[in-house]
Here is the input.
Amino acid sequence: MDGQVQDQESVVIETAGLQGLLGVPADPAGVVVFAHGSGSGRFSPRNNYVAEGLRGAGFATLLVDLLTESEEGDRARVFDIPLLASRLIAATRWLSGVSRLAQLPVGYFGASTGAGAALLAAASEPARIGAIVSRGGRPDLAGSPALAHVRAPTQLIVGERDLPVIELNREAMRHLRCEHEIVIVPGAHHLFEEPGALDLVIGHATRWFSNHLAA
Here is the structure.
């Protein structure tokens, strides 16, 4: 895991001025948009590693910074889940203008605070999002009313040693009315830095997207 961005191209989400990395394998089955956690972005080594695995499984990926460079230092914006969700929706709509991707189903992969943004965005546009995966996420930050309106099948992946986040995920699950599951990765902490932990994440995410997102 070295944060390489091979097989990706830099893009700009014009409507919001956001920077992204788009990777498209041959004949993609769907597109997975990544919502990064606080303090992270499109060059995140962990998310790029997962994105590479998803591209290998036949999914296009879009890693997008949900804040501009000037906004990243503002802690209030970093944790402004409605703002992040609105930016994620803008990135999703931008995909509709990319001819090779416009007709493909869209999924979200959210990490940390990005998971809350992904679920809030999916609740706002339920017809557009086909599946959601959260890695070490804070789905609770979407708020219980939004969680109850999510229709996309949702997978919550949490490290076994990330005890506070496990409890927050279990609490969020109580409000979900869509198909969902929680997956506990043995021996993993919050960042899934343990050997093989991210490979397990890729395996679970690939299974979920293949079952629920493939066109």
Observations:
- The chain has a mean pLDDT of 92.
- Residues 197-212 form the longest helix (16 residues).
- Strands lie at 9-13, 18-23, 30-35, 59-64, 106-111, 129-135, 154-159, 180-185.
